Amino acid sequence: MTGSSDKAGLPLSGRTVLVTGANGGLGQEFVAQAIELGAKKVYAAARTPRAWADTRVQPLHLDITSAESVVRAVAEAPDVDLLINNAAIAPSSDSISGPEDELRRIFETNFFGSLRMANAFSPILAGNGGGTMLNILSSAAWVSMPTAYAASKAAFWSATNALRFELEGQGTQVVGLLVGMIDTPMAANHDVPKNSPASVVAQAYEGITAGALEVLADDLTRDLKSNLNTRAEEFYPWIHAQLRAFLQP
């Protein structure tokens, strides 16, 4: 991470950021770039917090699947004005027809846990001028991938749009970040083209600064969005062909 004594004019100058899943590949990048862009403080939240070299990064113990843990996080981070809902899981054995307990475990983190964070921190954001909520979604929310991960991200995409209406009155900017595969440990088992975490995070922060409601962070996602109004009888054969090409480059 780099820093400077003069942060005037930087996109996140003076802001206080909370990143969930901060120990992961994308989470670490959100923390690092927030500091580079002038954040005053970054809460790096994880189940097992790690040490950070920069004193502006404050480790925070957080398990988003635990209501009690989220309540403690709210008490420990009352100055947050930018919440980054990044924590998620994607088990390698994930299947939409898999054991119900496993499907519930995925939804408990990717949907209920992230929504729990959104609802718990909404009053904090309101009290700090409205602030911003960035929800990390996935282009998998828009395609017919047979996984609980995709279904959970589709649910959270819908919830993100609902939160935007819900929080409009308090002046909170709610942003959805959609992207395909990212080169992080979560995607290590997938031998497919991947986006760099640095590029994805940079586009996310640029979108926040520009007042965007949605950030599409790669060409695949932008192409997919442009085809969502296609009739189902045409869309599904098209998306299946796209998936086959993507998974077998």
Automatic annotation (TrEMBL):
Q: Which GO terms of the molecular function aspect are on file? A: oxidoreductase activity
Query: rRNA-binding: present as a keyword of the record?
Result: no
Q: Which Pfam families match?
A: adh_short
For this UniProt record, give its keywords in alphabetical order, as a comma-separated list: Oxidoreductase
Name the InterPro entries on file: NAD(P)-bd_dom_sf, SDR_fam
Q: What family does the Swiss-Prot or TrEMBL record give for this protein?
A: Belongs to the short-chain dehydrogenases/reductases (SDR) family.
What is this protein's name? Short-chain dehydrogenase
